[in-house]
Amino acid sequence: MRTSPLLEQLMDALRCLPGVGPKSAQRMAFSLLQRNRQGGLQLADVLGKAMTEIGHCRDCRTFTEEDVCAICDNPRRLENGQICVVESPADIMAVEATGQFSGRYFVLMGHLSPLDGIGPSDIGLDVLEYRLQNEPIAELILATNPTVEGEATAHFIAELCQAYQVPATRIAHGVPVGGELELVDGTTLSHSLAGRQKLY
Amino acid sequence: MRTSPLLEQLMDALRCLPGVGPKSAQRMAFSLLQRNRQGGLQLADVLGKAMTEIGHCRDCRTFTEEDVCAICDNPRRLENGQICVVESPADIMAVEATGQFSGRYFVLMGHLSPLDGIGPSDIGLDVLEYRLQNEPIAELILATNPTVEGEATAHFIAELCQAYQVPATRIAHGVPVGGELELVDGTTLSHSLAGRQKLY
Ligand SMILES: [Zn+2]
Ligand SMILES: [Zn+2]
């Protein structure tokens, strides 16, 4: 729009959001300018802070602005000695929403993908190995996605568990094969947790 | 997500964008944090600036960070004496994209809607009336949306034109009745401009 270079910049910048094309970027920019400048300013402020301050939990690797996240820092989540391994922070939210799990998490932030050059240390398996070696872990629940890569990653971690004599389980295939964990409904995910199978 | 209050704030703040619910807000936040923090910082910066600095053109009311927008400020757009009246800045972009119009614009930023308490001065008709009175205007092209409110607004403005002896035309109904101007394809909009009818 020749009338405002700044508005053009805003529409361009909004396209860094997933699923936002030129038409929705325009609708978003106009909507904020016309009806919600306070909301826009608030978003600008929080977004800047979040991009700068949010890092990864030292223990579980999930997103947090603290050194250690609130779940890892909670002594009651340590009691049952369970650690649930997931691919992404969104999966933590999905598992938490079932109310069926009271242990801690470990977030891979991805999965093994040799063709893309993503190896064990890229998904934090060095950190996880250190924990397997040094912490009393009663059970490692492998809740990676039921995809080819997720399965391969789960089996790789199961072998790591075997090396350190830590019991490893895989969540049951109540979740649809080929799907994504964070899109599964709570009931299915509960069944899936309850029916987990011992791998080692 | 109990692990990061700042992340929760970010997901809340993203919902000020039209069409963004809890699931897409979460996907957006994770995507920026995991893959594009630079893009997120850039968006925060541009968004803050845009919300603060973008105002309305003194002459045509469209969005601009200048006092007068680049179209109103261009002497060549003054030559044919035409002013195209549209409901929103998005409509300017749609008309510009046809390449069929070289005059100036006037943006109502809405339409008359007595039931919602939106009267003539809320859509800048006092400013427009001042221009009708004081500028040599060859033709006012009424390009409000082909909706009930858009038609009513066009007829109200046509009466204003009659009072000041300024020729007013209405774009042809090549555009689908009940639709929104900014969603119409360029060819249809070109036909619609070419087939405009004299109202007074
Ligand atoms: Zn943690
Ligand atoms: Zn202007």
From TrEMBL, chains A, B:
Biological process, per Gene Ontology: DNA recombination; DNA repair
Protein origin, superkingdom: Bacteria
Protein name in the entry: Recombination protein RecR
Every Toprim domain range: 81-176
GO molecular function: DNA binding; zinc ion binding
Alphabetized Pfam families for the sequence: RecR_C, RecR_HhH, RecR_ZnF, Toprim_4
Annotated family: Belongs to the RecR family.
InterPro entries xref list: DNA_Rcmb_RecR, Rcmb_RecR, Rcmb_RecR_Znf, TOPRIM_dom, TOPRIM_RecR
Zn finger (C4-type) location: 57-72
Function (record text): May play a role in DNA repair. It seems to be involved in an RecBC-independent recombinational process of DNA repair. It may act with RecF and RecO.
Protein keywords: DNA damage, DNA recombination, DNA repair, Metal-binding, Zinc, Zinc-finger
Native species: Photobacterium halotolerans
